Structures are given as C-alpha cells and as structure tokens.
Amino acid sequence: MEALAKRINALPMSEVELNLWYFFRQRKLRSIQIKRAPSDYYEWTLEKRRDFLGAPSTHYLCKTIILENTAWNELYQDEPAYFKYVAVVIQYESKLSSEKVMKFAKEWQNNSIKHKKVAKKHFHFRLADEDIAHKLTGYGYNAVTPFLMKTELPLLLSKEILQLSPEYFWLGGGEVDLKLGISIDEFLENTNAMVADITS
C-alpha cells in the first residue's frame, strides 16, 4: 500500500482513478490495468482502440450498459430477484438482445426462493435514460464501470466474454478516457455478476 501511495503522489490522478486503484489494491487484484486514452478515443475505429489497449482482437473491447425494466410493477418490489434496473457487460462486437435479457430476468426471478412468480408482462428492458444511469452509477456516458457504482445493481456478463482466450477484457473505467482491463476470473470473483446469454 505504501508503494501505491508513492506512485499516486508522483502521478496526476483523478479522484475516480484513485478510488479504483485503492479498491483493486485492497482486494489484491493482480490483473488490473488502467489506461488513460486520448480525448478523441471514441472517434477511433475499434481496430485503433484495440491497438491502443494492446488487446488481441476487437472482441476484447467491452462496455457496461444500464437497462431499465419499463414494465416494472411496484406491487412486486419486495420480491427477490425482481429488479427495475440492471447493468450488463457486452462486447462492442455483439448486439444486445433485450428479449434475452427479459427471458433471463424472468427465469431468474421465477426460480428464486419461495415467493410469488412475476408474470412476463412485467418484464421489458430498454436502455435507461442517461440521467438515470448517471444517478444510479455516478458515471457519465461512455464512462460506466461496474466497480464502485453509487447503487448496487444486478450485473449480467455476456457469456460470449467467457470464450475469450486469453481470459481478459477491457471496459470503461469510470471516466470517458479511462479504460480498465481485468481478467475474467478476477472480474467474477469481485463482482456479483451473473453469466447470461444476452446477445443476438
């Protein structure tokens, strides 16, 4: 920890980056990389982003999206595993399937503990408004990361990511120009992520 403190004092770091480093250091994560990209990063092709991050292919580039269940019924708000918002991590090369997210969410809720099953009509997921996503996570557009969010949300990891070899991927790091690399094992060990088939 002392070595980390010296490094932090020697380098200009934002509060977000500093908090992430301490979070990962406390958990003794060894795979973490945090890179600060140029301001025009999102104007680059996926291939140029891949090269900047040193990833084997563009399939290693992922993003975190916040979805809202627009059919959420407050009558079931106390039911286990029935959620209004969910964070999902998918590859940029994949297309999110809201139908598959709905199917997973419904089956997960219906199979949880011994409570009422919520009907299919009360599940319908779409991209959450940017201001809602910011309020829930504390992170802005193109900056959302599953770590240190303001609100603990259910987290789904696309099962396609588990097929990567080496088992490592990149995602947002809490600021638009911060990119976070982590091994799949350490990601699963340090989040509440559920692996799910959520892309088409």
Automatic annotation (TrEMBL):
Which InterPro entries does the UniProt entry name for this protein?
YbaK/aa-tRNA-synt-asso_dom_sf
Q: Where do the coiled-coil regions begin and end?
A: none
Task: Please state what the protein is called.
Answer: YbaK/aminoacyl-tRNA synthetase-associated domain-containing protein
What GO molecular function annotations does the UniProt record carry, in alphabetical order?
A: aminoacyl-tRNA deacylase activity
